[in-house]
Fold:
Amino acid sequence: MRLLWTKWSRLCALGIASLSLFGLASCQSTPQDILAPFSPAAELTANLFYFVFWIAVIIFIFVEGLLVYFVIRYKRRAENEHPEQYHGNTKLEITWTVIPALILVVVFFLTIRAMGQVGPTSPPGQGIPVRVIGHQWWWEVQYNDGKVNYATDLHIPAGQVVNVQLTSENVIHSFWVPSLMGKTDVVPGYTNTTWLYTDKIGEYSGQCAEFCGAQHANMLFKVIVQSPADFDAWLKNVQAPAEEPAPGSQAARGKEMFLNPKNACIGCHTVDGTAAVGVTGPNLTHVASRDCIAGCLLPFDHSNVVKWLTDPQAVKPGTLMRIPKLTPDEVDALSAYMESLK
Ligand SMILES: [Cu+2]
Structure:
């Protein structure tokens, strides 16, 4: 029975692994795919996977091949036929103990070496510090010792190491950008570190990888890798205070509503340069420069901001954003203000 079970689990493992190989061929551009690496650290991990995978494939074919061969070759051919009776074969037993042990030793040392190379203390060179804080259910991103407070989009320059300091303000989360780096736990009251490095400009999807409550699945983020010049320009822009909406515009009306305590926004959100200094929700000073909002559940655009402000609980049930019911006209004005915050 146990033999049968191990055989089945081996078969399943092969099935899953070959399915994922298949997947790799058909969806090369899938952002959340450890087998589509876009950084040296992710490449190292993927290569280790392939190494172990092919060893497993060879062993599988060898063992199953022998099994099939013996079944046929030593089939009972006559009623009164009895197999030759043995007790043990020392040479064979030593061989099939030593060879797997050697394979495991090799895999063990390659794994240890890879763990060292992607570990928190081994980035290639001194990095730019970025602080990332896990919230329910979105990611806060701080640059320059917290002077820049952003959310959900983690901008980094291409070709430079970024040291990511991770902490949580509530439960345990896990920071994971499959195509750039493995997972790191995000623990309240403690700072874990990891790092990111790639020279490939682009956008890479990230995800909370530790169950953290109702909207865990919608706690995504994006790593946006820019040329160093574009990154500097972006960083400069988000350090400036929010743009002032034109007097008399819909956005100006929205700003007034935003700052009105009756609407509660300022209790939870900050817009630099205004009276809004809440810290429960994302800093909105440059919300309109984000690619996506609400833990990357929605791309940033007019219809989605309207949808969000009309009923955040309907979009993301359980979200900590609770607001009084707004009229469509109020939502429109507030959205205009949000969209002005470039
Ligand atoms: Cu989480």
User: Anything to note?
Assistant: The longest strand covers residues 128-135.
